[in-house]
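Can you make up a protein sequence with its backbone structure tokens?

===
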Amino acid sequence: MGVRVALFVLLFLPHASAVGEVDEASAHNLGLASSLLGAENACGYEARQPSADDVFSVANVTAVAIAPQAENITSDISQPKLLWSWSADYPENAIFPVESEAGCPMGRIEISNPANLKLKNGRLAYSYGNMTMLMNLHSNGPNPVLLDLNSSYLREEDYAGLFANLTVNLSGKASVAYSYEKYWYTYGCETDGEHVGCGCTPHADFGVKEYEKPVFDSRKFLVETGTVEKIWLNPPLGKRLSGKQDANLLLFARRMPAKITVWEGGGELARAAPYKFKLEDGKCGEKIVAVGFSPQAENALVSAGNASEFPRQLVEKDAAYLPIYLEFGLDSSAGRKNLTVEYEGWFLNQMNFSDEILVREPEAFARGGEAGEEAEGAGGAMVLRQGDDSRTPAAYPAEEKGFAQAPLSSFAAVFAIPFALGAIAIIRHLHKFGA
């Protein structure tokens, strides 16, 4: 698979990621955590009309976001946290009609003094690979919730797409207690001797009643997991001639690229950023990072595939990868050169690939001009130059014993004459026809 990676370092960086919008959104969203628990309507759901059976005009639980997150994608190595919300709104007091028995006036229930709002039986269940994790949630949290997205949970089929699937289910009951007064009528008949009297009898009840409403939410996220692998298309086999050439690098990524920088020694050769990022507002007040392919590059060209590929012959893990192509100029004198490709992802991760490239001068190998060593080859005895850090290897047929070797200039003249005569004939032919 071409030049093998000499160094692959995956760093959990303590500083900011390469995408400022991802950091800004994460900080903003985590700052919302406390305001999302028990708010009247944190996520702007449409209100309904309360009734005697359901006093809530708003009641919901919501998987708001994961920090960090871009589009609907997070990373398994960035300590992802789920931000969630539950909301409930209800009247301070209300009167609702209550059915009485047939033939009697309508009853009513009066509620007032709401108290003890809470989320009962709150639960988070999230599935990742072959594991489903359960956690109890309460009215005051925890929020956010640290997620366990260990890659050991993943199955082979989880690598069929560029990202692994994360399914989040939230459930519970919104609960509030009211003081209530209930009035209603029942219909009955009484017999007094021969006289039968029928009518409606009033009833009343007082006390405290707890109202509950089930709430549920389900959401799917995507998780980047795996590696980034590379192949040098040029220079192949880590060897090239001196001078200016275009270097061609093919990356197979399972972690989305924010910035790719190529260094030679301590100098920057090229830089590319395949995507642009934009902050947008979500329904719960959270910030969403929208992503669009819009390559920006310095001294380079960069492109990415429209779909994931399965480069089974070129990578160690049989999985879907995003192909990324990078082309840049490489102007080097002879010698050993150290190239480093710094790959920064959307999230808090960085990967460095380091390779040693051998650059040689294409110097001719003339007999008598330098020493060589004799060796037997398929074409007979050869004089070999092994080559070194600065010169290309070369070979020359060995001298046959007992025969004088004509000077190299004589051979050159012999071969040059027919070519020269042919060139003259072509020029005359073209001139004849007015070319």
Notes: Residues 28 and 326 are 34 Å apart (CA to CA).
